[in-house]
Protein 1
Amino acid sequence: MGNCSSGSCGSKQGGSSCGSADASIAQQEVAITTSLGKIKNKILVMSGKGGVGKSTVSTNLALGLASRGHKVGLMDVDLHGPDICRMLNLTDKIPDRQSKNQLLPPMQYNDNLKVISLEYLMENRDDPIIWRGPLKIQAIRQFISDMDWGELDYLIIDAPPGTGDEPLTVSSTIKDAHALVVTTPQEVALADVRKSLNFCKHVSMNVVGLVENMSGLVCPHCSNTVEIFKSGGGEQTAQDFAVPFLGKIPLDPKVVMGGDDGQPYLASDSDSPAITAFKELVNRIEKSMSEKPTLEMASSCGCAGGVCNPDTCDC
């Protein structure tokens, strides 16, 4: 785009090519707007560091919402380490596109849950993704514009760790997305999570809440909880940043095994502390998103980005 405006594009042919690119981008913007207009609530699950269980939280949150009758989409934008397909044991491949304008179906986990991940598009799921920023940005935009999401109550977006291309693309493309920030209790994780919370402030993204994952280990023998990573750091960080604290989820070996086996533990009938905590998280997300102010109300009170934080706004 910059080369064209500077004249280095040169010929009539080059100008035509640039005009075609502009038209393609404009067409994609329309498709993105149309797709997002059918989705009521968008939640970006993010954190400052890896290994805190974002994908586990994303998957179980999506399953929990779907089990309550909500129409849910789960979008994996962790392009270099996509895990959602494996955690749900989804092995479908993308169908051949019959026409240029045809929308592609996401994978259907059950009647209420649709899923898209880069692994859905790969011939060999063990191949590395060696992409720079522009390709990652385009892939995420295509996940929204080229997929037939239909009408959804929730779109859960599983992001990679950090504050780079992927969460930045989501925040700029999905203007009304809310962030769910995941941490573990130890200080090394909390230090990075504070960066994520400041990222949300910088891009004017409302934080629906912070959840402390791996908050103690559930003993598989006696079901008591041992605080191997300490406890309480997530709640204190939420207070420091004036964002809702959505609870503590203990580390349960059965949750880990369920994810590895493609049989998510939340789908079982167990009443373990971890499942109880996940269900409470779903309760709080449902309540928070149902109570969030409308964009018109947010605009009238002057909240940044047109989205209110119900914990800090008087509207």
Protein 2
Amino acid sequence: MKPRLIDRILLAFVLLIFMGIMAVVVLIAANVFDSELIGDFVNDVMAGDGWNYAIRGGIILSALILFVIAVKLMFTGYKQKEPPMNRMALLSSDENGCAYVAIDTIDSLSQKLIRANNRVKDCKTSVRIHDNGTVSVSAKLTVLADTNIPELCAAMRPELKNYIETYAGVKVEQVTIVVVDTYQAAVARAN
């Protein structure tokens, strides 16, 4: 599951802060900043008079905010959600519970059967689950140019219906096949 937008923004913020800290560490290691200068700055902040309390408080507050953001990012936004019930068809229900098949499974089965036909070059399928538990399958096909389209559709509709009912276990109310394009296979030239 993709993280939510707010989680991505917070993660980017934390990473930018971390990259800034790492840049300062690298500059210190490369002797760009004098260690005495850094020590004097830390001593001035820790001295505890006037603005130094505000700076120290700001550093502590910033560190606490970054800590809370890091903990939130560590424990939220990445759990797998279960598919919503309108994306599943009921197979059976008894005293032991219920069995469902996901709409993606039905779509995958449809794709598998349709693509097995050597006359089909490409296909896009969609599955809709009705309130009564039945499904409708729609397929948009690109077929080879010399295909007899009426025969292909007439043969494929009942075959797809039976295949889904057999392997997915749900009743198929309607199968719609639309041929959206034809494909001309490239022919090798004779020299």
Protein 3
Amino acid sequence: MPTNGFTASKQKEFIFELVVTQGDITPYGSASFINYVRWYNIARDALLQWRNLGLDEALRNIVETEASLCDIQYKREAILQDEIIIKVNSSDIRQDEFTLLFTLIRKADALLISLGKQKIKFRNFKTGEILNLPAAFIDNVLKPIEIDEKNSLYKY
């Protein structure tokens, strides 16, 4: 049995939990499309706490997060009162861009609800300039949760 391949037990991730509320569901009883995107963004923002980005003080107040891609794969419905675990991993880390991979799982029975993918950049909203990722952010936030997307269940 090879030891250098990807296994779930080797995977590290950032974890965020939420509960599906009345405001999240449609009249048909399941979560609406926009809530999946909103949940990914909430988990992303929780991961990207500005204090962890490694930006100098002058840039902190003029940086915005830009998601240039957002893909979603639905596996099953999220319904009212579901407790959901969102696991976030990084992938494809570049000088000025990185990818976040999202796995939404129902907490009660570990059923896969959704997979998501976002390509993220940081932009100076005053000048429009795309910023390079700070080394401290890569080393302290992205690298600890990095996986090789080709060796996991994300197939886009």
Protein 4
Amino acid sequence: MSFRGQVAVITGGGSGMGQAWARRLAEDGATVAILDVNEAGMAETAASASNIKPYVLDITDADAVASVFADIEASLGPVDRVANAAAIMPFGRLLEEDPKLTTRVMTINYGGLVNVATAALPRMIERGSGDFVSFSSMTGIVPGLLMGAYASSKAAVQFYTEILYHENRNSGLRFCCVCPPAVKTALWQQAEATVVPKLPSKGETLMPDVVIDEIERCLDKGKLFSYPGKQTQLGVVMRRLFPQLIWRVSHDAEGF
């Protein structure tokens, strides 16, 4: 699919999924605005294509987010696609984790999404077209030990996106909430710097392009949720039918 002439906005464009998708959309001809606090990472992303435009932004600042989206629309044109890839992923036992970190995970992973949606979607809905992509996680469906803060934030992302879709299902926009397993990016390396739960570390790890392909299929087919990878699809079924079995396996894997 060609995105030539379109404008895309990607949060977390300084690394990982955001960086990979920004480069791919730019190769397909889109003008891509990337938003991140990681200036060095964004410079690296933008160095690969002249049609990638970096914007230094803390997505937890709602006023700043609204201002940047107004600037993007004024300077680059109407936004056709928004992808919310910004996230942090520290792991650990909830009661051993600094509560400031626990709430910061929710503020960035979920609160940032809320700020972006509020800033971007009214204009897109008024035009009656566009794509809105939320990055959740398999852990938002299948929670596990040592993943409490991250899993909670990604579950919130799922519910928010689902309700957002149903409140705007006749708007002409396409919505997709992607729920991948571990992806080979800097975000997973961030988790490894804290503690890696044994269960997800034994599961499949996808490459970013695989996840992007699944998102594109999700949008083209008009599906709200995308579940990249065979283990993710199995996890959805297991969570629905055998929730206690999932917890038993998690306890056995972690040893407590």
